Amino acid sequence: MIIKPRIRGFICTTAHPAGCAAHVNEQVEYVRKQGSVAGMPKRILVIGASTGYGLASRIVPAFAGGASTIGVFFEKAGEDGRTGSAGWYNSVAFEKAAHAAGLYAKSINGDAFSDAIKQQTIDLIKKDLGQVDGVIYSLASPRRTHPRTGVTHSSTLKPIGAPYTAKTVNTDKGVVHDITLESASEQEIADTVTVMGGEDWEMWIDALRAAGVLADNAFTVAYSYIGPDLTWAIYRNGTIGRAKEDLEATAKRLQDKLGKTGGHAVVSVNKALVTQASSAIPVVPLYISLLYKVMKAEGLHEGCIEQIYRLFAERLKGGAPTSVDEAGRIRIDDWEMRPHIQQAVAKLWPDVSTENLDALSDMAGYRTEFLKLFGFGLPGVDYEAEADPVAPMPSAS
Ligand code: NAI
User: How many CB atoms lie within 10 A of CB 126?
Assistant: First the structure.
């Protein structure tokens, strides 16, 4: 079939296998060019490994450190006449690149929140690797079925305490408009914490330890976001921010458990970037498009792969945090949060409108990045050619 992007609001319902492979290979090449990172832990489990920050967190240990990786994700395989999800094609491409480089790489596709997938992962580690030295937790999900109660909780992206009106952009149409978001109920706050907070991360670490498959000095890292005043009401002070506070509190509990045997548990606060998860948050895409404009002009722009390379090369060396903030978090959002960057974005914010969006912001760059997430717009890919949507996972055969 000929595969074209089909965009519905903030998602693209199609993905291009060759384009996703080109996107993965671009990231692999970036890491190869940067060179290897000394002391990289050698057996890595990535939960949420197929797109965005998690995919980069699989590529960096593999290609900068020769690590064996197991990736867990929830994606759709392609069928005749129907494309799979980008994360599926990314993972197929990652495995191919890893295997070609002589690296171990296997993947588990299913609900990471479930006991069954945790057990399947433990069994695979036991069988193939014995133990893992690092666990990267990079899930972003709109819902979670709790493994103890069977109740499905949905996360919401709402302010807390009072309704909030702010500028936002329809990234598809390029229209800037005001949006008013009602404040979240207590139930919505609790549900968002259940989905995106730290409980599942802790369940993973507890399960891995109990099964004896986590090495004594293993590290675990999960990703958080803080951001500026402009997004404060919807992000850090909103429902998702509560979940991130819970995630950060979980890191401290996990540090108490892992620290006893020389391990580390830490949260890394990352930069705002175009991913499938962030494009669903109101206000944030407009902020990102202004941020990209300013950071590119300053030569400070980074994508997921640059962020995660810097994380492992400089901040989480050998799995041990080298420098953390007053709350014990790694801050690779440091360039985003530099005062002059934030001042420049804040100066543009009141002026940006539908009419001047392309001039003031990097909406073009935002759209390019968004399409790349689904494998579109990659150089060297013939998008007019017939593409086979069926792509078996190499490690499954
Ligand atoms: P993403 O949408 O690109 O990736 C989400 C990953 O989770 C995918 O691999 C997906 O398959 C997996 N997943 C979702 N539900 C699952 C389930 N039930 N079982 C197994 N796997 C499942 O998201 P992104 O943006 O890379 O987010 C990862 C983490 O980074 C999140 O915690 C997010 O809050 C954080 N972060 C993101 C920032 C951004 O601007 N994108 C900034 C700072 C932190």
Answer: 13
Helix (H) or strand (E) segment spanning residue 195? helix 186-196
Structure tokens at 380: 């060297």
Report d(CA 3, CA 21) in Å as an integer.
Answer: 14
Is 52 a pocket residue for ligand 1 (Cβ < 6 Å)?
yes
Place 9 in a pLDDT band, splitting at 50, 70 and 90: confident
| Predicted confidence (pLDDT) per residue in 229-258, tens digit | 999 999 999 999 999 999 999 999 999 999
The count of residues in the chain is 397
Nearest CA to ligand 1 atom 31: 140
pTM for the model: 0.98
Cβ pair 87, 51 in contact under 8 A: yes
For the chain, give percent helix, strand, coil, nearest 5. Answer: 40, 20, 40
Catalytic residue among 104, 223, 235, 292: 235
CA-to-CA distance for 257 and 337, rounded, in angstroms? 31
CA torsion, ordered 134, 87, 232, 364, to nearest 10 deg: 130
What is the mean pLDDT of the segment spanning 168-197?
95
Residue 76 contacts by C-beta under 8 Å, 6 or more apart in sequence? Answer: 84, 85, 88
Question: How far is the C-alpha of 140 from the C-alpha of 87, rounded, in Å?
Answer: 13
Q: Quickly list DSSP for 49-107.
A: -SSHHHHHHHHHHHHHH--EEEEEE-----BTTB---HHHHHHHHHHHHHHHTT--EEE
Using alpha carbons, select from 134, 143, 144 the residue that is nearest to residue 46.
134
Asked if 322 and 315 touch (Cβ cutoff 8 Å), the reply is yes
Residue 141 Cβ inside 6 Å of ligand 1? The answer reads yes
Check: CB of residue 377 under 8 Å from CB of residue 368.
yes
